[in-house]
Amino acid sequence: MSDSMIELSGGARAILDAGRDGDGAGDLERARVRRALLAKIAIAGGATLAASSTAAASGTAGSAASGAVAGSVAATGSAAIGPSAAAAFPLAKILVPLAIMIVGGVGGTVAWRAQQPASTTVPAAIVEPTAAAVPAVAPVIMPIEPATPAVAPRPAPAHHAHVVARTEAPTNRLAEETALLAASNAQLRGGDATRALKLLDDYDRRYPAGVLREEVLATRVIARCQLGLTPDASSRHAADTFLRRHPASPLASRVRSSCGH
Amino acid sequence: MLVGRSKAPQYAQPPGLPEIYAQHADFVFRNLRRLGVIESAIDDAVQDVFLVVHRRLGDFEARAQVTTWLFGIVLRVAQSYRRSAMRRRARLSDTPASEIDEVPVATSESPIDLLERREATTLLHRLLDELDDDKRAMLVCIELEQMTVPEAAESLGLNLNTAYGRLRAARAAFNDAVARTQKQMAERGARDFQ
Fold it and tell me: Under the phi-then-psi rule, with left for phi > 0, alpha for psi from -120 to 50, and beta for the rest, what region is B165?
């Protein structure tokens, strides 16, 4: 088979060699995406947690559909999110602890649990975490760079994710914050920027120092830009402000592309 | 610098997401770009790849090469993003591709080095753009990632005979694309095309 193999021409080989090393990622780029990936996983987990809480409140069995996770994953991604990633992610079992941990992990370390999701069911123990809700599997600690100043600091930064995973109040609050943001993104994806903005207004009223303020601000800018066929001066100003305050935000590219930057 | 096989570590146990990200983030970035994902979508595409990786870590256990497995995921995500980008470009037909498809900057480079690298990478991307998706993926696997044909076949889900045939076709198409470009540049009086 290889006897009849066509070889590349000298010019083709030279172009491949010259262009081979130009596509890699720098340290900053890798760190930025790693942080965004953590946030995306955390938000997906938080929305699932919220869905589970709602089901429990209405007397339904406390299991969350994996579609809730998929929806929130898509909500936090770009409009061009791939179908493979937008497909149902049975990540609930690992994502919910991650959503909890990222709150305490801001500015410190976040644990990425390497365990495999065994089912799409969210154990009730994780919705309201207790010591028993923390899996016995040792977490893999992955350092992250400090969060941007826009993320509100926690009053008592945890030295270890386990500590935060056992606190209840931040969990519920994060769940509510992420659910609101996910709902707003869902409206945005559905083309209803007005409703998306109302949900963001609701977020601002309820969580003036919320941990997802940077994401909310970016979503607000994108929604405002989406309202007009071409971004008006006010929207452009909001986008400029966001990009100036959060130049390294993982959401900056979305803001730029949505607002014609 | 050769990349790909020489960088792929062997794992005694299935790696976790942090290990895979640390070892292979660069692999994912560069191949998404080579497979045509525009720069403004790269961050999201990389995240999608690693979300899929996280979900499918169990599939990896018996595999010797993470990159072989990873490339298949990268390919599917890249194809999805390219389709989305094409739809978006159709809506924003007045946006030149050059404005949204830029080569990333490495700040340690001198301006001349940066310019040369940008030109080389941009030219490579334009030539890859002339190939269909199947040939493009095969060429990236073999000629840029230095995979063996059996590894490329596994990444792309092909049998070995099909893989050899596709490599032959991919090389021929790339040679043709280079020849066409050289001819066009010569006709325009371009200089310094070596």
Answer: alpha
